[in-house]
Amino acid sequence: MITGFAQDIKPVLYKDVSFNKVSVEKNIIYSAADSIKEKYRRLDFYHPATDSILQKKPLIIWMHGGGFKFGTKNAAEIKLWGNEFAKRGYAFAAINYRLSKKNPLFKFKDLVEACYDNIKDVNNAIAFFKANASAFNIDTNKIILGGNSAGAVIALQTVYSNTADVKYILDSNKAVINTNNYNTQNIAAVINFWGALFNIEWLHRAKVPIASVHGSKDRIVPVNNKGVVFFGSQLIHKKADSLQIPNSIKVYEGYAHELHKHFNPLIYPRSVKQRHREAAQFASDFLYGIFKE
């Protein structure tokens, strides 16, 4: 663990940076589905390099952004978050998932269908870690789903919907309050970085805590979009409060998608990295608050 701290400012495990170094095990295959290309079945596993004192670490499974069409676990921001969370004591699995061959960036039907393919991928990753919990030294009662942009959409839908919703959302996009067969994997929390729900009424279905971060001027996934395509983070926060679902939100005023001043997926300036680190700290503070005894 980090040394050199005075006793009265000793870092708090799972909340503060507590380890100097992170180990990364790359390209672990998490699914045996032969019908899916191998590159989409791989994950990178981050954990503290000197974590022998830790027993059964909480696990964050993270999905990258890219509009369901682009992106990989190798994105610079994913590596940053992997390191940030692992330095606080978490295990962090950055997964690849299937990318759509259709047009999810412009066709809502293609987007929804892609998302639900990805939910299957996430469930395969969860099952993999549950089957190998001892090998990875993780606490299967504290599995957290997280993601940015499309990845956050996948995380939210994995917990608050099921595959039977696909046809319904495409046909009518109206709410059906049904508490059956949701969060069957017993996910402990969701980290939502600039993501959204397809249907705000789905929050009736579970009580899974949600930490949200969003830019106020996000035009890709608007923070207050009222269901034209998505229900954004501000709407999720308001509805979750009304349902007494533990949640918290941090809105970056004046910032766009991915917390850029002007969104450009091809650059990753220092200022954005700093906001991404702040987002990780915000999520860590939230998780620490809901998990502490």
Q: Could you characterize what this model shows?
A:
With 293 residues, this protein is of the alpha/beta class. The chain is built from seven helices and eight strands. An eight-stranded mixed β-sheet has the order 1-2-4-3-5-6-7-8, sandwiched between helices. The mean pLDDT is 92.
Widest sheet: strand ordering: 1-2-4-3-5-6-7-8
**Estimated share of beta-strand residues:** 15-25%
C-alpha-based Rg, rounded: 18 Å
* Share of helix, binned: 25-40%
Strand/helix succession: EEEHEHHEHHEEHEH
**Average pLDDT figure:** 92
Largest sheet: 8 strands, mixed
- From the spread of the alpha carbons, the general shape counts as globular
Helical/strand content category:
alpha/beta
Query: Termini, distance in Å?
Result: 22 Å
Number of helical regions? 7
